[in-house]
Each structure stands twice: as C-alpha cells, then as structure tokens.
Amino acid sequence: MIVNKPLVRKHTHEVIVGWNGHEVKVGGGNPVVVQSMTNTDTADALNTALQVKALYLAGSEVVRITVNNEEAAKAVPYIREQLDKMRIPVPLVGDFHYNGHLLLQKFPDCARSLSKYRINPGNVGSARSRDDNYASMIEMAIQHDKPVRIGVNWGSLDQSLLARMMDENAQLADPLPPEQLMYQALIESALSSAYKAIELGLPENKILLSCKVSQVQDLIAVYRELSKRSPFPLHLGLTEAGMGSKGIVASTAALAVLLQEGIGDTIRISLTPEPNGDRTKEVIVAQEILQSMGLRAFTPQVIACPGCGRTTSTVFQELAQQIQNYLRDQMPVWKNQFSGVEEMKVAVMGCVVNGPGESKHADIGISLPGTGEAPSAPVFLDGKRVTTLKGERIAEEFQAIVQRYVEQRYVKVSH
C-alpha cells in the first residue's frame, strides 16, 4: 500500500515578531514564514519603504533591511513611519554587522522601530571586544523587548572559535575531516551564542537561529544536525544562491529536503537579481516552494502542460501566462474578500490528450485545441463540462468565468 504520510514539523519555541499589534508567529508549529530583504540604500528612506511595501504586497511576511552606518540607523524610524502611513504592517528586521552595538545605543529610535535584530556572532568585533559588543546588543534587545536572530554564516565565521576547534580537533586520535569540522563550528557558534544570550537575560522565546552556507549538501547536513540540538526556531536559506534558474534550483533543492523533514520555521530565497530586476521574485519563489510542497497556500495554482508537437500554436502558452498573472494580480483583492481562494487549482491545457482529464481534476479548467483539432475549448467546473469557448476572446471569457467561479464558490470574508 502506498501511504502519503503527513509532514511532521520539528517542534520549536514560538517567537513573535510584530509591530503595532500586527504579529507574525514563528516556530511553535505555526506555518513556515516567508522572509525577504531589501537591496536599496537604507539611508534612502523613501525608496527603501517603497521596496519594503512591494515585498510585503508580493507576500513577504517579514522584511530585513541593512543597518550598516549612522545614516541608515537614522533612516529606520522614517522608513517605519512611511510604512505605517501606507498601512503596511510588516515587521522590519535590522541586519547588523561590525558596529551594531554602537548604532543601537546611539540611535534608540532605530532600536525601537525595528521588530527584530539580526546578529552575526562572527562580525561583532575583534576577539578582545567581541563578548562586550555582543552583550551590548543583547541588552538592547532586552531593553526594547525585541527578538534576535543569531545568524551564523560560513563566510564570516568566528575565526577565534574556528582556530580553537581546529587545535582541539588536531589532538584527537581520529580527527574530523575539514568539512565536518566546519559544520561543527557553525553549529557551535550559533548554539553557544544563543545560550550566552539567555545567560544575559534574553528569554528563550526571543531567539531564532540560522547557519547559512552556499552549497546544497552542506546546508542540508548543517541544518539536520542543528535541528537535533536546537529548541529554537530555524531560519532557512542558501546564502549566495546565485542568479536566475541556478539560484532557484539550488535553493529549492536544499530547502525542499529540509522542509520535507520538518526542519525550518522561516525561509528566504537569496537570489541575485538581474540588473534592475524585480526584487519580489525571491518572495514568489519562496511561496511557490512552500505551496508546491503543500505546506502553505498563497495563490491559486495554474496547472499547464509543457507543450509538444500537438501544440504548435502558442495560444495555450499565452493563456496560461495571462491566467497566472491574472490570479496573482487578483489575490491581494480576493484574499480580503473570499476565504480559501488561495487553494484553488486552475488547469490550462493545450490539447485533447490530457486536457479534458486534467481540467476535470482541477477546480476550474480549460482544454484548448491542439494542432489539427476542432477550434473549440471546453471549460470544466468542479469536474463537469459547463461550456465551450470559441473565437478570438477565449482569454477574456475564461477570466470572466474564473471571477464568477470565485464569487460563487468561496465564502465571503466578513470584516
């Protein structure tokens, strides 16, 4: 017997990341959260706020911004003010490296306006000042009641910790190979920093962890071990994933394995954007990974065939693209009006071979004519053929059918 076992999430502490009454719950069995990051100059408050807005409207539930100098720290309260004016409640995470202890102390309005701080233990100062700088940032988090993500990255690993572990490893009768030692150093840095924060007074339910690397198998190995040893929510992401299909495929390959094993509470897809590219693409990819795995539902899914010699016309390709864009564009409106519409499945098929069957299995489907087939397109609702479309306005007529279906099938949300 083939059994489709439900995915069991690893239990972690629940951490609340919120702003002004709007809460995003991370861990504790809550749905996996989609996160993104801006690439604007944070000191440019207006453009940064506009990009945060775009990321939020695309579906990002938490947005991280760089806070790397005094100008950026000064801009954070104005970014938050602009977002509040635009009624964008998304929590902001401050990404600190090297000078975060100074910026949080010098600019308390920045510290208050952020909903979470991201601290990299490898970038909080020299060996002599590291403990004091780290303690200062944790104390600011306690003072302002903010959660902290302790984010270790193998490109900026604490060198003193690594050197100590290398010395200890060399003394072993059976020393670990270099890659295993690196794994252990990443995990040790994250966990020791977390427990140090608890010693300083930060509650356990204010801590999240991440250990980011840029190779798929390395990421899987590190997070499997970290998950075994950590009660804290884990943020997943393949750092420096790359551009285009390479970045998408590599991120999906790594995160899908971990998510299938129940590991991970937030995710970010670190795509390198094309010049002047749309930053929201990383949000869409994150959503599609979660939705394709059945972990979340964000927008109605379009089922479309890849095409073959039977579909030499581009009509079904164009219609599939139009419908997919239409559904995504409509979701900001629909999600506030209809409950459950994000789980709708729409089939746009290209010929008679699989077209009618796939259309019947979907909530709503259309089977377009392939090469040499009669110029008609049967439409199916809930498995039943209801009409046949012909002519030059098939796309517009099908979109109208989708709209009516949503209005009649899904329960209206009462506000």
TrEMBL record:
Residues 301-403 form the IspG C-terminal domain. InterPro entries: Dihydropteroate_synth-like_sf, IspG_bac, IspG_bac-typ, IspG_C, IspG_TIM, NO2/SO3_Rdtase_4Fe4S_sf. Its cofactor is [4Fe-4S] cluster. The keyword Oxidoreductase applies. It catalyses: (2E)-4-hydroxy-3-methylbut-2-enyl diphosphate + oxidized [flavodoxin] + H2O + 2 H(+) = 2-C-methyl-D-erythritol 2,4-cyclic diphosphate + reduced [flavodoxin]. Keywords: 4Fe-4S, Iron, Iron-sulfur, Isoprene biosynthesis, Metal-binding, Oxidoreductase. Its EC number is 1.17.7.3. It comes from the Bacteria. Pathway: Isoprenoid biosynthesis; isopentenyl diphosphate biosynthesis via DXP pathway; isopentenyl diphosphate from 1-deoxy-D-xylulose 5-phosphate: step 5/6. It is an enzyme of class 1 (oxidoreductase). Residues 23-286 form the IspG TIM-barrel domain. [4Fe-4S] cluster binds at C305, C308, C351, E358. It holds the Pfam family GcpE. Binds 1 [4Fe-4S] cluster. Converts 2C-methyl-D-erythritol 2,4-cyclodiphosphate (ME-2,4cPP) into 1-hydroxy-2-methyl-2-(E)-butenyl 4-diphosphate. Belongs to the IspG family. This is 4-hydroxy-3-methylbut-2-en-1-yl diphosphate synthase (flavodoxin). It comes from Limnobacter litoralis. The gene is ispG.
